[in-house]
Amino acid sequence: GRGKNRPARGLRFTPVAPNTADAVTVPEGYAQNVVIRWGDPILRGAPAFDPDRQSAKAQAGQFGYNNDYLTLLPLPGERGRQVLFANHEYTDEQLMFPGYDEDDPTREQVEIAWAAHGLSVVVVQEERRTGRLTAVPRHHLNRRFTATSEFRLTGPAAGSELLRTSADRTGRKVLGTLNNCAGGTTPWGTALSAEENFNQYFAHADAVADPDTRARLKRYGMTGGASDRKWERFDDRFDLSKEPNEANRFGWVVEVDPYDPHSVPRKRTALGRFKHEAAQPRLTADGRPVVYMGDDERFDYFYKFVSSRRMMRGGSRRAREHNLTLLDEGTLYVAKLTGDSAADQTFGAGDLPSDGEFDGTGRWIPLATGDVSHVPGMTAEEVYVFTRLAADKVGATKMDRPEDVEPSPRTGRVYVALTNNSRRGTDGNPLADEANPRNANKHGHVLELAERRSDPAADTFAWRLFLVCGDPEDPATYFAGFPKDRVSPISCPDNLAFDTFGNLWISTDGNALGSHDGLFGVATTGERRGEVRQFLTVPTGAETCGPIVQDRRVLVAVQHPGEVDGASYEQPASAWPDGPGRAVRPSVVAVWRRDGRDIGV
Ligand code: FEO
Ligand code: CA
Ligand code: CA
Ligand code: CA
């Protein structure tokens, strides 16, 4: 029929061409607005953003810096409103502060940076007849959580000796959350946020005396002296030679209940500790949540957690309290993937596998269940706190930087973004294999995983590569078999989302093809499976994060605009979003159709 020669429903827009415009570029016929920017006041009493009069107190009531993950939750009873949850991965002090001296930051600058990290909950309002979305400041549900807010550790490792510090003898109370990257949304209406590159905040690992402690810190990327931001000068807990366990209290998945304005967020130890990129749950047939998670590091692993408890339906207080315990008890697994092509085939030359497809089978290796370790030589507490070391021991598959993960609500297949790995096959590092098929992998790939019998709790799975990214003219690329002359070039997939039609949307970080980063949609089923179409591009220096695709609008987090080598507050590389002479501000953007119809139909 007529549909045959048209892109998949939901992706019927004129693709945006690769470009380097200092703007958010959207398809013809689409419009956009900035929903909220770094520094916009969200709490009662917070002042308007003023780059010349920043203070930690002001920032603690304003939207944070470098928005990354986004989710929208319904707000029944308030017409046209939803609850936006956003996280704030890290700070770019050179771009934030006039006259910043990286060798000599002031206490005020450091405290502003603490307040600019963390999480935001902010109610948003849609405009009738358009897709425009605006923030509702001072709403009673609005929250800020910063690098100094109180968080609670829960689950099997909470209270462990490994999590105790001189400020917290209980091992259960942590101040702050750091480097939150992607996240997830639970079916019981909470937001998950993943602590990623927390190592960068901790100094003086080189001065830690105990060799075992030093080895563990090293496996998590902590080897050096002073940290880049010098926070250790202002709070001893960032100095590992004084507080070696403080770093163990970061690298977790955080759960936030945005509907309870007094809730204390939880760090869920049952989900393990690593450079968590994301945490996306789904339910088994009997109602138990399963959470998929990547560890974003070259040659690190892909995990899942299977809860032993069933979700309770309904909005009762009892159900809500019960559901807030679901992520505290279950089994943590790591993935091992085996290719099925000829055993002697080597990859990396851009060849297709001998059987014509990058595919194979996989196994979920259990690491710990509650207080029981499945890893020889490690206690359960050690497995949770030093999960990378546990996965090393059981021989999990070393992946090309597992980023976001998203199960398709239509097919149940799970998609994993593997963003790139420039070191694959170099300097004695592991060589390309069927699941990570390119040495010096510059452009990344997207893996598609099908649990056995579609059971999210299964212990085996089948997998195949869905996309091998890059310039379509490069023979090493693969778009699920779709003709390469009809796809948008895509490089460095990072965050993933599904629309209601079952199309996968992919945002990129670090496009290595010369264009700015962007957002792409691709059909995962039917005749157009693999047809990648670019929906937008972001300004100079920015990464595209947090995509949400609703019927009427697409939301993206424009992270670190203007982050270009040598750029500073005085010498900005971008004039986005407010034009020349104004501070560059990471912001959330909504995109909608001018004619009021749904996205891509
Ligand atoms: Fe913060 Fe893996 O991106
Ligand atoms: Ca990021
Ligand atoms: Ca194969
Ligand atoms: Ca990311």
UniProtKB/TrEMBL annotation:
Annotated region (Disordered), positions in chain: 421-440
Coiled coil: none
PROSITE patterns hit by this protein: TAT
Domain of life: Bacteria
Protein name: Phosphatase
Lineage: Bacteria, Bacillati, Actinomycetota, Actinomycetes, Kitasatosporales
